[in-house]
Structure to design on (354 residues):
């Protein structure tokens, strides 16, 4: 359960929003928007699309709270919605990869000496991720970029912990081949 | 002796700084090529798009404005009595397509007991289809659900609401 430094845990905010408290919904947006943005960007969304997709994710989440059973994390559920929206957007674009690789934006290194190598690895990793099957890419990002445990990933993707581990294993194997 | 698999399991947490490597593990990373490569990938993955900025204030304001303009309302799919039964009916429809090898099929009628019974009866057969067969079924239904991202295999229960709506529309549903 994620508790922000500024307040109540997610489920409490969700209950408050259901009761009409817009401030609670705003807190949820502030708590999760940046993580969703990073996830969408790494999943192939252009920087121009990220804000819109984040907005659509929250809109859809808040309108469809009946779909969140509460047995998984709210954050995981947001990732699931975001992933589906991106899939729909991708399809609307007739299958074109719509990531414009913005190299300066891929890695956020604060280490000047290692920045060049980190940028190069980040660039290759981003290219490799876009070649992975969607589930492998999503599991890798949720595990590595977002720090979710396998159980939380399984819940977010409607899968099992074992399957999430397998997808992660295959993703890393493939990325190693691409980056070796 | 370092257990490579156990160490790799902890890499995401180590990359995020929530666990630390021991001296022996640091030494291992300097000598084990495979672990070193995975560590490089995981560290880069943890930092991926760290600089992405989202205007949370603007997003929150826009979401609230949209919600006020369109008060919470169940989607077409969620208005239906049970999403699972929709999937069941679609599964039945798809199975009929398979059985008859026909490009189109008769519309399933909501509330028709025999259709529902058919759906429930045929569903296990659809669940047994492999991914290629399921893709063919979806294509035969005229859905874009089969036009998946390369490497993405469509599963009925994994369809997004918009995909389910497309399927419903293709069958003359809501
Ligand atoms: Zn090793």
């Amino acid at each position: 359960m994620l508790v922000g430094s500024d307040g109540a845990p997610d489920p409490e905010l969700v209950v408050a929003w259901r009761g009409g408290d817009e401030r609670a919904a705003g807190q949820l947006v502030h708590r999760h928007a940046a993580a969703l943005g990073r996830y969408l960007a790494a999943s192939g969304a252009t920087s121009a699309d990220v804000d819109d997709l984040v907005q659509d994710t929250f809109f859809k989440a808040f309108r469809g709270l009946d779909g969140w059973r509460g047995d998984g994390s709210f954050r995981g559920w947001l990732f699931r919605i975001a992933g589906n929206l991106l899939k729909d957007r991708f399809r609307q674009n007739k299958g074109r990869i719509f990531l414009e690789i913005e190299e300066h934006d891929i890695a956020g290194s604060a280490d000047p000496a290692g920045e060049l190598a980190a940028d190069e690895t980040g660039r290759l990793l981003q290219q490799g991720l876009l070649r992975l099957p969607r589930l492998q890419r999503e599991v890798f990002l949720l595990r590595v970029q977002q720090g979710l445990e396998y159980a939380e990933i399984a819940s977010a993707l409607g899968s099992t912990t074992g399957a999430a581990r397998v997808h992660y294993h295959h993703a890393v194997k493939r990325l190693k081949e691409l980056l070796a | 002796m370092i257990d490579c698999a156990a160490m790799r399991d902890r890499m995401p947490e180590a990359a995020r700084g929530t666990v630390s490597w021991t001296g022996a593990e640091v030494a291992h990373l300097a000598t084990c090529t495979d672990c070193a490569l995975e560590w490089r990938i995981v560290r880069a993955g943890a930092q991926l798009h760290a600089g992405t900025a989202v205007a949370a204030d603007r997003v929150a304001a826009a979401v609230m404005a949209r919600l006020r303009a369109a008060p919470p309302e169940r989607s077409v799919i969620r208005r239906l009595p049970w999403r699972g039964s929709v999937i069941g009916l679609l599964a039945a429809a798809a199975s009929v397509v398979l059985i008859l090898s026909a490009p189109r099929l008769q519309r399933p009628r909501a509330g028709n007991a025999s259709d529902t019974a058919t759906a429930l009866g045929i569903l296990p057969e659809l669940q047994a289809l492999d991914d290629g067969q399921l893709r063919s079924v979806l294509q035969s239904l005229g859905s874009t659900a089969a036009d998946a991202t390369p490497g993405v295999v469509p599963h009925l229960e994994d369809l997004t609401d918009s995909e389910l709506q497309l399927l419903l529309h293709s069958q003359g549903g809501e």
